[in-house]
Known about the structure:
Chain A has 5 helices and no strands. Chain A is 67% helix and 0% strand. Chain B has 2 domains: 3-37; 83-163. In chain B, 65% of the residues lie in helices and 0% in strands. The chains are: A mainly alpha (91), B mainly alpha (165).
Amino acid sequence: MIPRKVKxxxxxxxxxxxxxxxxxxxxxxKKRADQILKDELTxxxxxxxxxxxxxxxxxxxxxxxxxGTISYNLWGGDEMLKYCKLKLNKK
Amino acid sequence: xxxxxxxxxEAKAIRKKSPKMEWKKAVAQASAIYASKHKGKSPVGKKxxxxxxxxxxxxxxxxxxxxxxxxxxxxxxxxxxxxxAVLKSxxxxxxxxxxxxxxxxxxxxxxxxxAMSHLSHYEHTYKKYMAMPLYEKKLFAGQIKKLxxxxxxxxxxxxxxxxxx
Lengths: 91, 165
């Protein structure tokens, strides 16, 4: 079960992206947001999410008008990164 | 409260009413409600006004959703000169020319005139040669070449004389 905070991040990101005219994030990111909201994550996708979030943390500057923040949070944001670490037993 | 916050709040309320609804659809509905509340000014797809660097002239900041009137550009139309001004300029030109002609000596004009007559003579003969049939033209090829050279030289000579005045 994915934490509530992760889902809230994703929901906020979807709304922000909608306001921007769905310009931000790739199709993969949008699909991942859907998967997170529907609890449809496999271990492989969790691994992929973890690797993305680790790489894309620099794009997140808490400004919801920026595409970097939106796409980072579409993948779950900081909470998702913690969750992935926990699930994948990463230090 | 920003547009994003109010839309999220509204979308959550919609989702409470119908929990099976997708979040995207709820957001779309919420934004429509937001637009209806704010006189039909939807926040979707609006760009945020960029900060301008100091030194550059500031433009009026764009308000989100506000329809701006089209500014009519004033085209700079050239003023037509008045009749009086035109006459004045013509008079001035005539006086300048008269003054200039007064300074020129008769000798210089004679030189130009003679050069002009030479040129006309050369051109006339050149035309005569050119009107000949090809066979004869080939016979006088050397002379034609010389004439062409002379015409060119006299033309430059005349321009130089004119400049020297």
